[in-house]
Here is the input.
Amino acid sequence: MRINVSQQLKASIGSTRKYEVSEIVNVANGKSMVQGEVGLIRTDRGILAKGTLHTGVEVTCSRCLSLFSCPLTLNIEEEYFPIADVVSSASLPLPEEPGCFTIDEHHVLDLTEAIRQYALLAIPMKPLCCEDCAGLCPSCGHNLNQGPCDCSPRETEPRWSELNKLALASDAVVSEQKGTE
Ligand SMILES: [Zn+2]
Ligand SMILES: [Zn+2]
Here is the structure.
C-alpha cells in the first residue's frame, strides 16, 4: 500500500489528503481484504496517517474450534517520518522512537506494516464464531452448533426420564401378568 507523498511533504503543515484503501494485505498467515479511508495530514515532522479500516482474518473459534472469518476494525493513527528531505534529498534524523514508521528516500509512505500490526492487535484473545456458540459436546466432541448429539440430552432432559419411567412401568405390568399365568 505505497503512497507517494512528495507533493504533500512540500505543502504547509496541516494540509490534508484523503486516500481510499482497498487492497489485500497479508495479515496473519492469510491474505485479507482491507477497505476504508485514511486521512494523510502534514505535520511539522512528517505525515500523520489517520483513519478507520475494515478487514477480516480467518481464526479458530475458541469454543467449537471451527474456522471462521473474524471481522476487524482498525483505528489507525500513526505518524510517518521522512528519512530524506523532499527538496534537497539530504538525509533527515529520525525520532528516537523504536519502530517508528518512515517515508522512504523516494517519498513513499507504505501503510502495509501498520495495517498488519493493528490487525494482529485487534484479533480477540478468545474468538467466538458467534455470540451464542454452543461449543462442543464434552463427552463425544460433536459440534453442538450442528444440532444435538446422542449423549447428554437423554440423561438430562426431564421429558426423556418421564418416558423411561413409563417404559419401566409397562415392563413391570407385563412381567406381573406373566407371573400370574
Ligand atoms: Zn464456535
Ligand atoms: Zn455428545
